[in-house]
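Following the same procedure, backbone shapes were mapped to integers, as reproduced here:
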Amino acid sequence: MSEHIEHAPSRARALGTRWLGIGLATVISVVTLGLGLTGRLNLYISPESVWFACAAAVVTLAGAIWSCTLPLGEEGDHGHDHGHDHGGSTASGASADSDADAVARPRRSLALAGTVTGGVVASGVVIAALVLPPASLSVDLAMSRVGEQTALFAGADDVTLGVADTATFGVGDWASVFATATNTAAYDGKTVTLTGFVTPTDADGVNLTRLVITHCVIDAQPATLPVTIDAGEFDTGQWVEVEGTVKADADGSLHVEPTTVTAIDEPRDPYEY
């Protein structure tokens, strides 16, 4: 009976260790592969990184399968000999062991509390990844990041050198032009077809906005273009396709003068790269 009670905590500890290690990694790997196969991993990382993430998930799953061949608790066995020579025990030795155990007990309690807290948080994140559907970053986040840094996105070097084909420009590329061009007249009259969502400006105007990511959604930054649209025509966050021309104002600033603005559903891939 006492042996069963002694081994119960050890088994629970071994199960917890395996879940916090290979268990969480396995679930994340399965979620990653599922998102990759359905094309929804692009909601979190750039397309160029998808293959690497999926390959890493496959390797992790292979390691998880191999780990299942180990007996439960084997990963915690470091091969130490925990036996004691009871013949040489003395009263002073027992007292020293008791004092050392009293000092170590609070540390073990803190370590256990930290492990449990971290395990609960990590498990919550993993469960949320399983339960919640993949979604693009919110319009509120895009608006909150406006103005954090100068809009310099893909194509900025080409814009500076004046060798870019503006017919291929997206919202991020044009945002770089609008922010850095010194000869704005060179872009006056350029035709554009752009997709983004509507956000307001400080001057009761309207911006066409698109989130641009380099590696993953953590580094996402909003690219915005002023568009001549009635501020009440579309709700904030409404996705639209704008066809029109770039116009240079007398003060040298640029804006988009639309010929048609069509409300659309959010694209399957809502980001630019």
In short: Residues 2-76+93-131 form one domain. The chain has two domains: 2-76+93-131, 140-263. The radius of gyration is 29 Å.
